[in-house]
Amino acid sequence: MASKKMSDGGLPVIARFEVRHRNYLAPDGSINRPLPAFASDANLLTALYRAMLLLRNFDRKAVALQRTGRLGTYAVSLGQEAVSVGIASAMRAEDVLLPSYRDNGALIWRGVKLEEILLFWGGDERGNCFSGSVEDFPFCVPVGSQAPHAAGVAYAFKLRKQPRVAVCMFGDGATSKGDVYEAMNFAGVHKLPVVFVATNNQWAISVPLRLQTGCETLAQKAIAAGFIGEQVDGSDVVAMRAAAEDAIAAARDGQGPRFIEAVTYRLGDHTTSDDALRYRSADEVQARWKEEPITRLRSYRVGQKMWSKAQEEQLAAECHERVEAAVERYLATEPRRPETMFDHLYAELPETYAAQRRKLAGEGDA
Amino acid sequence: MPEVTLVEAVNLALARAMEDDPDVVVLGEDVGINGGVFRATVGLQTRFGPERVLDTPLAELLISGLCVGMAAQGLKPVGEIQFMGFLYPCIDQLVNHASRIRNRTQGRLTCPMVLRTPHGAGIRAPEHHSESTEAMLAHIPGLRVVMPSSPERAYGLLLAAIRDPDPVVFLEPTRLYRAAKGEVEDNGEALPLDVAFVLREGRDVTLISWGAMLKETMAAADALAADGIAAEVIDLATLKPYDEATVLGSVAKTGRCVIVHEATRTGGFGGEIAALIAERALTSLLAPVARVTGYDTIIPMARLEQHMMPSAGRIVTAARKACQFS
Which residues form the Transketolase-like pyrimidine-binding domain (chain B) (predicted)? Predict the structure, then answer.
């Protein structure tokens, strides 16, 4: 963009910045550049593949549940599975994840049960109880408002000299919010151990990226906060995992925050309440199917003779079974009693609200 | 016991809390070497270091959001917002996160944070520095809203707020920061967060107020006493949750109630108290409940602000009218 260059007028340049782009696997599964070391670990690649496939199966089932009235509004990850899976796979158990509402894949990797995610989208707070990663934040629905929390969590790690990292995930729309910039700015000031991940799936519901920012990349937003931003092919799980490993290691090592822009595409609707054909063409979506991450990794592994049809079938059956079992447990979970809406409102419920609780429970007439 | 101002009492409580608990962290704009715009945090950074007393970038939303993140990790952050007019970017964090993270995670994550901010008009400050929008905060479930009216209560209530396992918005009456003086023993003793204080007992009329307005309310009680009217004065002190029992008990005794607040009338917290009395103490009433409040307009700048705030005279008039009602 030539228009962004001002005439120099003989003035010296006092700072220059650059943004790098990371990609290893081409959409057809061929290799664009030498793979990182972990890619020789067949078990790890299988785990990444399994997590993405599980997520896609889970999403499909969740939409079916929603369409049949057994689940509330749901946000699918279709097409962007590599982002949440790649990021979470590079985290340690003791790190803390601050997810947006479309980061199911990361939570599942970190031990949150499928039925918990269904409970959340089914309208039950117990879905946020989170087995496994008990210090992770719940799904954040108000866009980007979890970014300051991530900075606060990372500040606590630094204050207590704990070698832990906060990982904050949000979408391209969130980068337009002051919340995100305020958090990044503070993280930059204190060199906090936090990694910000923007899943750039091109669409914030119906608003395309070009109406979200005048920047060439979202990654460069990190420059204004004083740290490195990298753009990554978010449909290449190898690239996502590698970028996350680097960023998290740097943050843990005291080098300060990092920003990852994961460029991908939301193949599905925003949520089950959305109809994306209102604002983008079927042709656009069809073209993007060529880039999606699951086929990409499978093509690579098949090409390398590292993956067989039998393995694929076995894994598909395993994912199907896991999802079905979780759905059964979800559907068998009775709603809580109405008066439990007062539970965990305060550490100890003040008497004036306890009286309302008793009334709701049918005890007394407060 | 030494006599201190209200802002000095705030400082004492902060220092005591930080001394007692290494998890207490103070953050805000200019709270470090400058000691805060009102000097509430003076000396703390020197004593406890810049990691525990940190000057944040100039971003109020950030301050409240940082508190939520820190608190989820078990720290006890005390954020300062310089004036209540700058609190509003924090509302998203207070409503969507601080007040509900415990409930929405079913107790897995909690939010033991305090957000302090000066409250009210009367110091001839610039625009946006004289707000009293406490009712807005008291409407948020899961939050506690506290407002002291004396150095002693500022000390005890702030200690309680910091030790409380839930989020507290702590509103400090700007006008009393230096005007209110009193003896405070720095003994680390907290006051209860849901008990109103009866500042003066009386049988004829109940005057209920909070924050800086207690000054005018107490002056009104003196004037009424000269007329032979014994007013009972209640400092509500905690607006959420508030002490219904003390309010109802007093009205049952006096049969008359005047509620005084600086904030605008419509939707003000006085309406909540009047409704409580209507629901639970109607048969005790000898006169309609009266409200003496700010007018339903924008708080004017310095030249007119004193006309907005209830005067002792307005309170006396309302109390007399209640006593003469038949």
Answer: 4-179
Question: Which of B92, B106, B111, B139 to mutate to probe the A interface, most A CBs <10 Å?
Answer: B106
> In Å, how far is B29's CA from the nearest CA of chain A?
13
Query: Two tokens at B254?
Result: 């006096």
Spot the catalytic one: A110, A164, A241, A270: A270
- Domains of chain B in start order, with CATH, are 3-183 (3.40.50.970), 197-324 (3.40.50.920)
**Any idea which residue has 């049952």 for tokens?**
B252
Looking up tokens 């100890």 gives A348
* Mutation target vs B (from A113, A129, A155; most B CBs, 10 A cutoff): A155
Task: Note whether A347 contacts B165, CB cutoff 8 Å.
Answer: yes
List pLDDT tens digits, range B103-157. 999 999 999 999 999 999 999 999 999 999 999 999 999 999 999 999 999 999 9
Q: Could you give the CA distance from residue A108 to residue B234 in angstroms, rounded to a whole number?
A: 53
Q: Please name the amino acid found at residue B187.
A: N
Tell the CATH superfamily of the A16-28+39-335 domain: Thiamin diphosphate (ThDP)-binding fold, Pyr/PP domains (3.40.50.970)
H-assigned helices in chain B: 6-20, 44-48, 60-72, 91-93, 101-104, 134-138, 151-163, 213-226, 244-254, 269-280, 305-308, 312-324
Helical pair A42-67 and A237-252, crossing angle rounded to 10 deg: 110
